[in-house]
Amino acid sequence: MNRVTTLKRSTQENAHISCRVNGEPVQVSVAPCKTLLEMLREDLRLTGTKHGCELGECGACAVLVDGDPILSCLSLALDAEGCAIDTIEGMAQDGQLHPLQAAFADLGGAQCGYCTPAILLTAKALLDRQPNPGRDRIREALSGNLCRCTGYQQIFEAVEEAILRLRRTEQGTDLKSVPVGARHNP
Amino acid sequence: MSNTDTFSIIGKPRRRVDGADKVTGRTCFADDIILPRMLHCKLLRSHVPHARIRSVDVSRAERHPGVNLVLTGRDFPNEYGILPVSQDEQPLCRDKVRFVGDPVAAVVARDEFAAEEALDLIKVEYEPLGTISDPVDALNNPAARLHDYSEEGNIHKRLSYEFGDVEESLADSAHVFEDVFFFEGNTHLPLEQHAAVGMQEADGRITLWSSTQCPHYVHRAVAKALDIPMAHIRVIASPNGGGFGGKTDPFNHEIVVVKAAQMLGRPVKCCLNREEVFYCHRGRHPVLMKFRTGVDENGALTGMHLQTLLDGGAYGSYGVASTFYTAVLQPVTYHLPRYAFDACRMFTNKPPCGPKRGHGTVQPRFGQEVQLDKIAAKLDMDPAVLRLNIVEKPGALTANYLKIGSIGLAQCINTVTERCGWKDRYGKLPEGKGMGLACSSYLTGAGNSIYWNAMPHSGVQLKLDRSGKVTVFCGATEIGQGSDDVLVATIAEILGIDPLDIRCVTGDTDLTPVDLGSYSSRVTLMMGNAAIQAAERARGMIAQAVAEKFATDTGSIAFSNGRVFEIGQPEHVLSFRKALVCAEEMHGSLGTTGSYTPPDPPGKYKGGGVGPSPAYSYTAAVVEVDVDTETGWLTVPRVYIAHDLGRAMNPVLARGQVEGSVYMGLGEALMEESAFRRLPARLSNALVHREPSMLEYKSPTSCDMPEVITDMIEHPDDNGPFGAKEAGQGPLLPVMPALANAVYDAVGVRIDEVPITAEKILQALDDKARGGAGRVGPDSFPDIEWPEPFRVPPPWEGGDGNAVNKPARKRAAKMHEMDKFKKVDAS
Question: How far is B128 from chain A, CA to nearest CA, in Å?
């Protein structure tokens, strides 16, 4: 209720930003007071990035900026200038789910699916850097992402399953890629 | 007990049908809806807890260049509310505000920035009224009345029931235990903030998208609040980003966006911020409880008298039902020969409480399970053995006339105690380490709708055609629990097809038959049974056509693996698609319906409609704790849980429901509380939410979550689809009492209130060290003038489900009767 408006956000001139989003160059005209979250959702209509608090508390808005998970609700759109941003929309490649996505879908890692995009991106950032983390490291890496549905256990198991699947892919053993939307019987 | 070998889909672990959408960010939540020319709405909420509204000046806000419309209470003449007996809410407050967060005005503007700026330009003049902070305060200050319709003063509802002469039983009991417990309120905290989009179509009809668990109830409320025929309103429940009961009421912003869309002819969206979600609340009622329980020398229950006092917050919400639920399920878990309860809900100047996961039954379950632990300690019995001896029998009719079906509780207790090594470890762990056991039962769907009617609780329609595609329509709402998956799996199982061949359309009041919504753990059972009926009817039509083609009888036709064939005739086989061609040739366009109505409850007494359910789930849990005796700090290394869910339709999802319940229960047990504080006198004495943010309202993170060892126990129930019962609420209930009992095992102190914090443990340890009882909890239950109880003899005392008396009912007081009440109070 304590709404202190120090500047007229509604009447400012737009800024012009160039960045890469999901590997593609993007130019966007955006209100300078907007957060990266708002730019992604409202100006680029990439609504796969979620919000649960807009105060940096819940982690639902995490995206990757130059490979690092950051809270897009605490980051100004202006700071994205020249950056490479990855959102959930770019995680599946060539119509194939990323092994993390497939494992989450198969093993109950996503219930309502609201915290899921940010958790998947945070987990991807972890595995990109550290391909074989233990359970404690996974817990720690995801500790900034609240989930109210799962109790986290199936999320941990899904990350661990994805690690196995990624390793099998690297070793060139079986793992047939799973098409988006395909039925899967583990 | 179970045999899933005969099923091809039910009972098999499977990727949920909406799984790929959820992991790709494609699931479209309400705030993800962006429409051409859409405007944005923000609500101005009261900063005072109780006041008359003297005036609302919106002229400056209306002049803001980005603003299209400003609405106030005067634009909304009609009241609404979820229960027909509590029509006490206004879309925007007209005369009074009743809690910090009650909305008084709305701004619709070109974007949220402009709307927020304009909110600051609205001037509201309040005349402060006395503020009621808790139920005892409410009892002591009947004159500072929140609502005119309450029974008297700020008493919203009082209930009193007697199922047999409990006083006689207690007098004859070997032991009588009297305990008082307190369960603090807490909130759902869904990750998705509530959002709604209203749109007027070109012909004047209305569409409302909303993150609601109950589109049908929202449909009714919007029609009533805005005087629009239901036939002209379409409510679409977007998939919910978590609900847990917090999105089951109709909300102010839903009605406001519809009104604004009507007036402006443009789509209007309102997405609440996190602070506002705390104000919408409808969360767990704070409940003070007093148990008087008699047992024989072996620990068998002889009788129980339970009294509960609920802090209802500022509005009715589901409160009358919540009040019943703080008492009616006590006899369902263990055999209770005689039972009496009194329950009372008070209005206070705080966000309204309502249904949170386990609705009303969680608090008394905590009290009873902790009391049973005390009884076992006093009788020097193993708490597991004590419970095993008194588990209610399958098929029982309880003292308060609830008809139970299957009961897998004994197996649940045996499973968790075996898994945790109970016999060798309970009571024998080193100081500071402990384990505790608790059990519970829960409804699989409320036996009655929130408004009285004789229509089905769930409807399903199927459309099938020559493409081989089946489309299933149902009003049920996907809130993450997997209701779409249950629906599709049920149809696929019966028609012998792949779930991918089924398109699922749910939660849309224009397209889908009515389902009452995702609450009371009703969806799997009720929607599932309706889906079975619709699918079996479709199967019958297809079988008839295929039988004719193969010149055989329909009984010889089987459906499996996408084929329809004559049993024993390998060459008489059609693909499902070709079978649909045959069926369409024979019957014309293909469609079927199915519906489900719960059985009539055996209890015929007034109020007997709350508590009946087609089936009850059962749970046992063992929680392990480590307590640091220096600091009181408590950690939970492991939780063992066994839940009798009848049948796991999809074990991956069912397990997720059980473990999610354990998680939420641990949050309530350890840290979550909706706490309020008074500002100092110089700041108006206002009662404010202490922690309306996710940072301050603590909930468990991935680092706090213990290992959970889950067993799904399957005692199929005759009333459940494929025997299934609920899994999403019941497993929460035993977690808090099991944890409290574990603390006692670890350090010998009793924390008789929730949450159980380090501070309280330390306080109890200090108390014990000074020779006290080593207990933290409430000391007494206030004197309340209870109404004459309904006296209903239990079935085994010649009762037939009717009350043998007719207690005089106090009529709800009207405003002009206020003086009369004052006189009555004075005399």
Answer: 17
